[in-house]
Amino acid sequence: MPRMRAKPASHSASLGLSQAEESLRILVGTEGDSFPLMEINAGEMMEDREKVFFGVRADSRIFDLYRTLLMEPEGPAARVQPARPAPIPATTRIRIVNFVLNSKTAAGDTLEDLVKDGVFETRFALHKGEDDLKKKWAQWRNMVNKQPIDDIRDYFGEKVALYFAWLGWYTYMLVPAAVAGLVIFLSGFSLFNASQISKEICEADDILLCPRGDHGRKYQRLSDTCVFAKLTHLFDNEGTVLFAIFMALWATVFLEIWKRQRARVVLHWDLYGWDEDQEEMALELINCPDYKLRPHQHSYLRSTAILTLCLLMICLMIGMAHVLVVYRVLAAALFNSALLFQEEQVTTAVVVTGALVHYVAILIMTKVNKRVALKLCDFEKPRTFSERESKFTVKFFTLQFFAHFSSLVYIAFILGRINGHPGKSVRLAGLWRLEECHLSGCMMDLFLQMAIIMGLKQTLSNCMEYLGPWLAHKCRLIRVKLGHASEDPELRDWRRNYLLNPVNTFSLFDEFMEMMIQYGFTTIFVAAFPLAPLLALFSNLVEIRLDAIKMVRLQRRLVPRKAKDIGTWLQVLETIGVLAVIANGMVIAFTSEFIPRMVYKYHYGPCRKGADPAVDCLTGYINHSLSVFHTKDFQDPIRIEGSENVTECRYRDYRNAQDYNLSEQFWVLLAIRLVFLILFEHVALCIKLIAAWFVPDVPQSVKNKVLEDKYRTLREKICSSRKSTDV
To answer: What pTM, to 2 d.p., does this model score?
Structure first.
């Protein structure tokens, strides 16, 4: 498979040629090598006015050796040699040549060293034979069509094909989750005007809420929050618990069935027994017969240092969440003093702008986290590239998880709970009051934060992911059209590949990471945002074709990599599934109004002694859930507008009206919340374990096929042994 090298031809043609010949000798190796690494045909060097291109093709003996080492691992007596061996796939050729070019030569140089020295500009594999993929796959009109996974594997290799197979299955499984979330959300509309709690809030013209924060200088009627109360009921209703349990079951079934799908695909590709370590050792031996095996090593001192640095980075991520808290507090004071918003709009404006700031912080910290994770991996000194990739995945995802979700954790479980009470508020630096939850509850804050961040990631990220490479490619083409156009069709093809956007080691990794974060948003805190699966479904339908168009039309060809699973990402998905159970249980227990409503309904409300058809069991809940504050206890009541005619106001908490200490109802609720959390998590985790046991990872048909192959191999060995004994 040809490879191209591009070098600026700013020097004279003869100088460029002499540098190229010296470089080719480095790549070919010395005459004493056991295996010639490269053979260069004279016709595979071309030049135009700007660049000199070199085509590199591997010697056929390299592939014969590769076939001997890996394609028949059972030994020469295992099976009969075919009269005409099957041709080596193009993906294997590219992979082997790329491995050789990445290795050090006898002179101690690598291709990267030559690039740094200015001998070469870049290297890339040719796009050849991609027309079928362009027609069947890399088009927007094929958005709902089945993906040609086998064709993707034949062109890009197993690693890319497994990514798209997983992404396609994930998108398919999002359909029931999206439908269930939409049903839960729409069921709130059926109770939009029928909810007893919404009725009481909308009719509470005589209940005044205490001023909230420093921006609230007047009392507000509870009935003014009528619209927000109805909107909150769309996603904070009795169906939320069932939906959270359903999503825990869905995450388990999704992963278990994916394992079965993977087993079928890998068996179909004849990679079920493939070993990655054996593959890498074979490539090392092909490149250098004197290769010395690098044993596994472990250093407790190095691991302790890496763990310490990771914890410091996690603390930095948590610190970023605190910076956002400070921003929201200061933004509330600024918006109020600058009169940019009306007083009742300040909280909403702070939530929205806070989510935007959080999104920008995520973009910045993503670049920082990647560099830190790479440095930690280099310090850890992994043995092989696959081991390095696995360790990098764990570190980078951990840092990214805290960067994306630390702010949501604050909103879900801390916001509005450490503020004190009217008349005695907790202040930041003794000056600014900490922000409160939305008037309709903290679930509205969490819903808005999730909707804004997830919406921005799905829209802006996808737009930038496509428009960036598209514009860069168009600019390159425009510059070439203004310059000299080559008449040689082969040179034009090489130049066309050169003008595509470059790819690197992280090209596929970044796609996986994007999907893992999206999966986290789809499952973690989904109880507060039941529309997350629906947004993810629409986003993935676009993402599949967007990635296909990028890889086939806008980017240089990815170097194929062999794989039989998605690697460490599977453990990441399983970890997210467990975290989702814990997070959703805590959201229902501590953030939503589900537990207080149920406790009031059966312990404090009119139905505590038995249901009465004429009375709604939640009648009086609003009055019960709001504490009383006497306005005379305000430190500066004169500043509050209308305070001369108000003797008491209400606020969301469970405190005594006399001393403002936490009331008995608060402790009862706290105990029930903890009991519910423990029960919910145990039930959900038990359901996950039962589902994982009930659905085998590997289908019986795959197990039987592998068993038959082993049996046939043993029979062939026995027959071969008997024949040799008879002779």
So the answer is: 0.84
